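FW: tagging you since you asked about this chain on Friday. Here's the raw sequence from the shared folder, copied in full. Didn't touch anything.
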Amino acid sequence: VMGVTWVLAVTLRGHQKTITAESGQNVTLTCRAPQGKPIRAVKWSRADLGDKYVLLYRDELFVPENQHPSFKNRVDLQDRQMKDGDVSLILKDVTINDAGTYECRVIVGESASLEIMGTVNMSVPPPGE
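HL: got it, structure written out here
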């Protein structure tokens, strides 16, 4: 059983998706953590934001301190209970400035480190194209 879990985790970690969103719409960036261990934290980030993040959810609370200002009041988890490992991000009112590569990381079980679960590359064409 351990071997199967490990292979599944490796598969999930390498998962990369590409999506296209239109300005003004709400979009869900999907990400799934391994099942069976409690998820202690979820962090969504984008490489070009430096030390600011898109969303950090820890101990059943959102952590606003280092959230990038452009994402305030525009992001949420699809399921705050994170049933079945669902740690997908909802991004509201997309703009062309939201285009980029998003990374989904989680802390599960007794681990102390954030493990990458997947990346989503989102393109947002200018309105009218």
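FW: Residues 1-14 have pLDDT under 50 and may be disordered.
HL: agreed, and The first strand starts at residue 16 and ends at 20.
FW: great, closing this out.
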